[in-house]
């Protein structure tokens, strides 16, 4: 495994973050409906966005949200989006990003983080289960809500 490190999303790395490739079929699972609906009420000041560098190259992106006052518990400390380039999948990039967000949540006083995903064969469910998330419910749109105790 190569060297992994985080860097804040910036003008210097945003093009690379936006250019991450996916494996065939994964594009269907980029953003659950719940996130698309909630994005209009999310406060940009609560966003936590980082790229993951693998051996100095952008290999992943994670967007978290930390808003202890959110009306929706599942959005208080959550993974909003996580993308790992197709060529870097299976190399620990996604787990590294999720662990970093979990550590940030701990520092901010949260005892768990959440994530929402759409069920499906090519979707992220098995990844989230592998790194310790457990299913705790469903959204109004039939998506799974997962939680990771910190």
From TrEMBL:
CDD domains recorded: NAT_SF
InterPro entries per UniProt: Acyl_CoA_acyltransferase, GNAT_dom
Residue ranges of every copy of the N-acetyltransferase domain listed in the record: 4-150
Entry superkingdom: Bacteria
Pfam families named among the record's database cross-references: Acetyltransf_1 (PF00583)
Record protein name field: GNAT family N-acetyltransferase
Organism: Cryobacterium breve
